[in-house]
Amino acid sequence: MALFEHALRLHRQHPDAALPRAGEPYPDDERHRSRPSYRRARDQRLHGADVAVILDEHFSRPGAQPSELVGAFRDVHVPIHRNDHIVAAALRADRQRVRQTGRWLVRHSTDRNAATVGLTLLSADSAEGDIPLIQTIGLLSHHFGPLAAEALQRRGGGAEALRWLGERVAGWGRVYVVEALCRQGAASSRAWLLRHACDGDYLNGYFAGKVATAAHLHEAITDAEADDELIDHTGRLLRTLADCGGMGMTLEHYPPAPVVLAAHAAHLARQEPTANRYIDAAMIADCLVARPANRCGCTAEQRDRIVQQYLAVLEQPDWRDAVRAGLGPTSDFFAWFTNHVATRLRLAAS
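Given the sequence above, the corresponding structure tokens read:
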């Protein structure tokens, strides 16, 4: 089965959500695992050069058909990110032939290497008519996500297409899409980035700081009319920024941290209590008290005042009731949360 058809079938079964396991296993998994190992060039600057040689030879023959490339890339290393060698080969050839070849390889390839080359060819182009094709293969996001995001951001209507894909990918696929939206500039995607970028996965740490910066979070959350979706997403962003060292920007390197933290805590006091809101706020407060204030982007006075704002909400009986009801006192997470976070903060959560 072609990889595109595999993605399309799964999408029809899960039209509004990420594909289970990002569409894995792929139809070519057994063949992909059993093929002889190939040696990558030690110099990363040469990665993709052998693919470019194959494409140059193919495009040098005027009558060569895309189907002739079936199997041509099975024993070479094909990068899953934009590659200058492959893009250069695309730019050397006739634009229409490159576009037709890219479309054919993406739609018909039963081998992921060939489909990846096809998607790279499309990433060198800007035809808006290819957006649905790119979105569909991009649903297999762990492998095709980087190039799908690259290809979509180059097209008119790319921001809307990326948001559509962002709502249907998780894990690494979400990282690629959200980073592409941030690179584009947040003007057309700001509302989405401020409310939907973070889904709670630990990989959100790679882009949380980029979202906060590109979408001007500090301006949005200090608005007195901030809505619940914005406030809840800000909680997820702050929880991620508080504990994503080694992945991306942390609170320490986010200049508006004190302002955003204080605004989130103030909004929280006016929200209805829920388990998720309670946990996000408690995890943020726990990270604040566990580190020196400067590691949280605050002065000691700012940090202590913000922690007290959070605790004033979390100590209320209706908030304690919400977390007990939402998690269930017998759950493993509740036990861990009570023994670690709630104990350090002296919260009566259990």
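The mean pLDDT is 94. Try to locate this feature in the token string yourself.
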